[in-house]
Amino acid sequence: MWSWIHQLVADQSLRSKMMLATVVCIVVPVCTTLIIYTFQTREAVKEQAVANAERELQLTEAYVSKLLEDMLYIANFVQMDSEINTILKGKENTRNSPQQTEDTYEAFIDDSKVRKTMDNITLVGEKSYVTILLTSGQAYANYSTSEYDPVTMFQERWFHQLRDVYGFESYWIGSHPTVFKSEKKGNPYQISVARTLRDGSSNIYGYVVVSLDENQFSKIFENVAANEEMMLVDASHQIISHKDDDRIGETLSYLKGRPRNEASTIVRISDEDYLVSRRSIPFVDWQLVSLTPYKQAVSDIHSIFHKVFMAELVLFVAFLFILAYFLRVIVQPIVHLGSVADAVQQGDLTVRSRIKGKDEIGRLAESFDLMLDRINAMIRDITETQERKRKAELAMLQAQINPHFLFNALNSIRMKVMRKGDIESSEMISSLSKLLRMTIDQGRETIPFRKEIDIAKDYIHLMNMRRSTEVQLDIHVSTDAYLEEIPRFILQPIIENSIIHGFSQDGGTISLDAYVEEDVFVIQIEDNGRGMSRKKLEHVQESLIADTATAEGDGERKGFSNIGLSNVFERMRMTFGTAFRMRLESKEGQGTKVIMFIPRR
């Protein structure tokens, strides 16, 4: 038989022999490999389906955890805020001591502080309902009591369990019917967390309850894949949140008896296999559960594998015919490019490949040459940037005259002044201490814009203490702008210019506007001071471009709080690059406006 095959092959033409050799040596092994690979990838298909489900679950868990963390943040704030707790304890002490009479005006001020704080901590994030309930029956809430009387919480079935909650322990209340009349139709369920407020003797003097509409969670589940069902369940496997309200309270019997740490498994439900994946919420004994029909989970992957296999087979055959032709064309430029790379490795950055062409090798060579040009340019830019950074850091260091010593000394002075009852001087020293703290803290190059606003407030508060007429700061900042990261002490130098040069010894108003516009973060600082002449404005703008340290003119004073526009401009350029822009607008007698356009990272 072998002799017959040998004779059959020998009688064929060279072209036929090559084709036969190609079929025998390439096509047959490839087809055999694909068949073997198909059988071997069955388990890989399952693992990929599990990985996809767990990845979707992980993403959803991040959103759910964020909502729960926001609820904990509000509870933590109420529990840890010393001013609120002092007021609340005072309410209880007044109730327990009939001899003491609380001034009506002071009581009104205290109540206003508590309610204002509750409103402030719920401004960011999803709409939440906060209730502070004292054992005396007095209650504070950030919602209308005509919708729901918070005192009725004492009658809830879960309320007596709060007596066993201590410290930062939280009692999580799963989905329960909405207590607000106007919300019952659109949001039939709520999810709540409760904590106790205890005094130094661990006696309960109040409770804090934070609630969130259940539909805030179910909206997250609506964004998952169409063939996937996702839900939030408690420790007893009861559904807490589901995109279908009718499913809430249902028990998932197929989870009973299975380990809680079991991430993914295939379960038989109603004569059909389902891929069940679970993920625990870190700080509460709840889990996210996803349910996907197994056939649908792997069908797309099977289709992808099939298409990939066919594409590989077609491309492999095509490359086989063109390989010989392109081999010589490809190899020669690559060898030359390799020699150029060796020269670069030896440190010669002046060498270039000079290879021209529109194919991949030509583009690679062109990119390689452009990369070398860019490296040389970056070396020059880095050298110049380091020099500018050194100068800017030197200016900052010159302004920081032993801030650690000053900060500690100021804190000691503040405590003595406070003990003597001079609250106004104590607040002034406190504001100065906060500004000094920011100079000491070198752990991060940038801070959230919210903290930068706090620095500006403290600075204006400090300046108003020493002036006969006060300067007002009018803040208009969008919610997402508070989270933007910027270098420290960016607003203070600009505000200082407005106070010293714009207002002189008079009062005035400084408007601070900040908002996010697509990929640009815009900050506007405008005062209604005396402004600048056109010649003076041009001088300041030229100083910024010329990278000088005297952009504010001959009147600039070096010190802790006056770094200057040029310093701000340089630091922003070093942080955000040339995409950062600063624009100055001013008219004599009408005030000055500084606008910064910061590229978002």
TrEMBL record:
HAMP domain boundaries: 328-380
UniProt cross-references to PANTHER family, sorted A to Z: SENSOR HISTIDINE KINASE YPDA, SENSOR PROTEIN KINASE HPTS
Domain of life: Bacteria
Parts forming coiled coils: 375-402
Keywords: ATP-binding, Cell membrane, Coiled coil, Kinase, Membrane, Nucleotide-binding, Phosphoprotein, Transferase, Transmembrane, Transmembrane helix, Two-component regulatory system
Recorded GO MF terms: ATP binding; phosphorelay sensor kinase activity
Topology of the protein relative to the lipid bilayer: Multi-pass membrane protein
Descriptive protein name: HAMP domain-containing protein
Main location: membrane
Organism this protein belongs to: Novibacillus thermophilus
Signal peptide start-end: none
Record field: transmembrane: 20-39, 308-327
Transferase found in the keyword field: yes
Gene Ontology cellular component terms for the protein in this record: plasma membrane
Statement: the UniProt record of this protein carries the keyword Phosphoprotein: yes
Subcellular location: Cell membrane
